[in-house]
Amino acid sequence: SLRNSPTSYRLFLDKNYRIPEAGIGALMDRYPDALLHLVRSNHKLSEKHLYTAVLRDGGALDTMYRLDLPVTSQIEKAAVEHGYYNIINIAEKYRKKEQKVPRSLVNAFVKHRYDHLSMIFDWNRDEPKYAIDISEKDLVKAIIANTKHNSLQSTLSDRLISVYDIDLSSDAVAEIVKQTKSISILAQLKRANKLDPELPDRVLDYIGYAIQYIDSPTPQQQIRAVKSRPTSIQYISNPTDEVADYAVKKNPISLRYIKKPTLKHLVLAAKHKMKNIDWGEGESDLLDIPTFYDAVERSGIDEKTTKKLELLLVKTEPQRIQEL
């Protein structure tokens, strides 16, 4: 009955029926909110019952704390893994015992509740004696997870850098960029005047967009950037011929970032062909026709040459005729 209709437990309690241990287990698996009523009706809850409850709803840990139930670190860890994020409440419990939060809980928090990591720094500021141990390695793991989860924009690193004034080593930042392929943290460090001037070059092979943080990039840095990400050319004010050629060949949309395209650039773009495009489903290749014509206009080539380029466009990919 409890497994199929967990809220029916109140009918049993109203009639002063004792719920057997198996019934409590089924109830905790389906409706952990019943904790409060079970304790008030003098039902004895085992560690297994409490563990089952947090597996269903990590927030049940707060109820256990309020009822002063015998909560183990294993139960707390399971709660964090299943939605519980208030590590300050956990830290308060350990402070009362004159202990620090166990490492196993910190690991779980870093892995599963990384979006709330700033709470640790609030606690450490107010309770230095019982500060939660958190390493740079922990921060790197959390920032990587947060960045990947938030469309490559790390809200966590932004808070840590701008609000908590956290300093990360160049090795740590490079690892974050390498794993996320995002320059989000570089932008945040730049705003905070904390960006190591050698760092953009160091991560250039991971994400070419980092070149925007290099003053007067060398030809070697330019080619590394576009090999990593062809459209990185948009951040290069005076690209070399080799860089411009490579960028357009690999991604013809790069034409829009070249001030005065040459005929060679236009030919490279026109010859670009992608495989496995389902034009019938509305897919298209990387060559944007309006962008191509804008580049033609900027190049200053004559109408006769333009017609030849149009023929090349269609010869390379017949479906383009729909857009001409």
Task: Produce the secondary structure layout.
Blueprint: H1 9-14, H2 21-30, H3 35-40, H4 47-56, H5 60-66, H6 73-81, H7 87-96, H8 103-112, H9 118-126, H10 136-149, H11 155-162, H12 170-180, H13 184-191, H14 199-202, H15 219-228, H16 241-250, H17 263-270, H18 289-299, H19 303-316
Protein structure class: mainly alpha
Give the biggest sheet.
Answer: none
Helical stretch tally: 19
Into which percentage range does the β-strand content fall?
Answer: under 5%
Q: In angstroms, what is the radius of gyration? A: 30 Å
Report the strand count: 0
Quaternary state of this entry equals single chain
What this model shows, in words?
The protein has helices at residues 9-14, 21-30, 35-40, 47-56, 60-66, 73-81, 87-96, 103-112, 118-126, 136-149, 155-162, 170-180, 184-191, 199-202, 219-228, 241-250, 263-270, 289-299, 303-316. The protein is elongated and about 95 Å long. The protein is 54% helix and 0% strand. The protein has 324 residues and is an all-alpha fold. Helix 6 packs parallel to helix 8 (103-112) and helix 17 (263-270) runs parallel beside helix 19 (303-316). It starts with 8 loop residues before the first helix and ends in an 8-residue tail after the last helix. It contains 19 helices and no strands.
